[in-house]
Each structure stands twice: as C-alpha cells, then as structure tokens.
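Hi L.,

You mentioned the student needs an example of a multi-chain input paired with its predicted structure. This one should do, with 395 residues in total across all chains.
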Amino acid sequence: MHRFANPARFMRIATLVLPWAMGVAILTLGAGLWFGLAGSPADYQQGESVRIMYVHVPAAWMGMFCYTAMAVCSAMALIWKHPLADLLARATAPVGAAFTFVCLVTGALWGKPMWGTWWVWDARLTSMLILLFLYLGYMALADAFDDPQRGQKAAAILSLVGVVNVPIIKWSVDWWNTLHQPASVVKMGGPAIDSSMMIPLMLMAVGFHAFWVVVLILRTRAEIAAAKVRTLRMAQVHAAGQAEQA
Amino acid sequence: MTRKQRRLYFVVLGVLAVGAAAALVLTALRQDIVFFFSPSEILEAKVPTEGRRIRLGGLVEQGSVVKDGAIVRFRVTDGAHTLPVVYSGLLPDLFREGQGVVTEGKMGPDGEFQAAEVLAKHDENYMPKEVAESLKKTGHWQGESQPAK
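Structure written out for the whole complex:
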C-alpha cells in the first residue's frame, strides 16, 4: 500500500489505467442504458417504471462506496500522513455527493408513482439524506481554512465520524421497518432480481465504478498540478522578495 | 510504540467509540425510528394510539377491499392480527389486495383506523410477468402478492 503513496508513481500508473477505465465506462454505460431502457422486461408489479432502478440502485451503491473510500483515505492520511491519501479523499467527495444526489432524486421520482409519495422520513431515506449532508460538510470543512492542511485534517476527522452512517444506510431496512423495501441484490439467500434485470443493473454498476475511476484520476491529476503551481508561485514570490532585498 | 501506531490505535478506537454511541442512541430511539406499527403492536396496546397520529403498516387482506364512491374500506393484516381501515382519497397504483401498505391516520372510537394517507409498500422481488406466472404455476411462488392482471 505504501508503495502507491508516492504521487509520481501513482500518476504513472493512473496514466496507464485512464484509457482502459474510460473504455470500460463508455462500453458498460452504453450497454447498460440499452439493456435498462429497451433490452430488459418490465416488472410484474411495477411495469416500466422499474427501469429507474438501473440508475437509482447503482447510484446508491456509489454513494456508499465513495464515502467508504473517502473515509479509508482519510484514515490513511491521518495515520501515515500520505500526501496522496488526502488528494484522493478530496477528489472522491464531489463524485460521491453527486451520486448520492442522483440516488435521492431518482428515488423521489420512483417513489411518487409506486409508493404514492415523493419523500417520507423513514430510516433508509433519512440516512441517505444524512450521507449527502456529510459529503457537503466534508467539502465545506476541507476548504474552510486558510491553511489547506488544517482543513484537510478537520475534514478527514469528520469523514471518519460520519462513516458510522454507512452500515446504518445498508441495514436500515432490516433494523427498522421502513417504507423502502429490503435489499434485493446483496442479501442472505441470493438476489431477488430476475437475471434478465440483473444484467443492466450490473452493467450500470460496473460503468459507474469505471466512471468514478476516470473522474478520480482526472481530479487527482488536477490537484497535483494545482499543488505544483502553488509551490512555483511561492518560489517566485520568495525569489522576488530576495531580489528586492539585495 | 511509534507515533504512527499510536495514531492508528487512536483512529480505530475513535471510530469504534462513535459506532458504539450511535448504536446506543439508535436503540434508545427505536420507537421513533420505525416508520409504522403493525396491527399486532396497535391492538396489543404496545404503542400509545389515543388521539395520536400514527402509521399502520401490513398487507391488505385478500378480499377485504370495499369501495363506496370515494370511500374505501379495507383490512390491514400482519398474519396474527387484523385492523379495519377507512380512507377517502386517491390510492397509489400499487395498492392491491395482498400487497404491502402503509397508512397514516388515527384510531377511530369504533376501532376503525381512519387513514388520511395511504402509501403502497412493495417487496424486494423484481421479475418479468412471465416469470411470476410460471412460478405460480409450478407452485414456487414466494412473493407476497398476486401479479398485476
């Protein structure tokens, strides 16, 4: 793990991975959208509106996955002071927030025709909304200090405190009764989704993860470039100050 | 112990402490976090119902739906107990006999639940209509309700 903490080595590997991740994302998202919108059957209960699932469910997984990744990176940054871990956590946060937002919006659009309501304050929906607020809080806190390192440290602690919410989201539908139905895919006794509907769901899930890899690499590259610019500018200011003194 | 190890233990202990605190709070607030009560919980007086707005959830009993103009009467069951419900308004598309339902309202003086809102609750099974029908034919059906006609 520590071998990859070097930004230069990470960027070399990332440059190799980037085109592959892009290819996988385009192929799986294209195929997933086709299977999801046209190449899969309607549900026996919900009819055509079941197709919202192919965006809603993978987006929810990504919301939780990105948060977990962010918390793990934050822990590594706090414990081992890897400079790259902070960058990765920072780069993941807006992606996870966007997926969580997509999950909440598609959930509301799905809830209205199926349940008869846009929103209820049940345990699953509420804990997912808290996840979005945790992302927003993390991003705000990371940028709230003049010294970026201090902001990063405070935000890392916040992300570790908030990680307790991830298992609550996952098992909220089992621990309490909710309007939201229990898990269909990751559950005891195997998935409760017909294989013809599992294909678009899995394609979209792989596509979303590949998309995350692409954005993560692009954002981390930009963060490393920004750090270099900052260092150069500091050196310039420093040099100008010395020239003045001389 | 090196500083890195100390930080590692500190982070692990911190996360565990936050987790334990969250578990205690959520256990204490259990009654407020559950979204609805079952007919059994209400009839066995495990929850205060007097004059309070509560949610009742369960399955719509087979053959219990009676429509009289805009007024709908049906019975909600959890297998052990059953409560009659009266509701006036639009029902969600997924409202069917044998299907999950969550209603919000008050217990009437006559023991009938007066619902102000009816929401449909569906289960976690997703499959095409043909699969649902063949499962029923072969007797392997495990879903909670009849497929849409």
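You could point out the following to them. Residues 195-245 of chain A form the longest helix (51 residues). Chain A has one domain: 21-217.

Best wishes,
N.
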